[in-house]
Amino acid sequence: MFRYAAAALLLVSCSRKPPDATPEGALRQWLELMEESVESPSSRKAAYALLGPKARSNLKERATRTSVVIGRRIEPYEALAQGWFSLRFRHRTMRAELVGDTANVFVEGYGDGEHATVTCVRELGHWRVEPVLPEL
């Protein structure tokens, strides 16, 4: 009996955390999906799922407006422009500063002046990316 309990405990302790368990992990995964979306449009749907509530709301409104203009329904994830969001440099490090359910992820690149700050929010226990989107 003890062996089974020990084996179960070992399996649980060895399991990996999901990428969105940390702000840095959510941002890394989101950037990877956005990069993939250039060649694989289905990646936009997965990237959309990693967005925070403000970004999702913005894209829902954009999709609604676009649907009216073109005469067919556009899904919110389709309003997420392929190749639009990426870092302009290869990241070397990411470090998050948390304040409650909000985090600023400080990204540093390899060259001088290569840095960015991206906001993430915790939603239902998972971290979500809140990129700066143009106003409607």
Strand content: 15-25%
Low-confidence stretches: 1-12
| Helix/strand/pairing category | alpha+beta
Oligomeric organization of the protein chains = single chain
Query: Quick one: biggest sheet?
Result: 4 strands, antiparallel
Q: Given the structure, what is the number of helices? A: 4
Summarize the structure.
The model is unreliable at 1-12 (pLDDT under 50).
Overview of this protein structure:
This protein has a single domain (19-130), classed as Nuclear Transport Factor 2, Chain: A (Roll). 38% of the residues lie in helices and 23% in strands. The chain is built from four helices and four strands; from the N terminus they run ααααββββ. The protein has a four-stranded antiparallel beta sheet. Strand 1 and strand 2 form a beta hairpin. Helix 2 (23-36) runs antiparallel to helix 3. It starts with a helix and ends in a 6-residue tail after the last strand. 22% of the residues are buried.
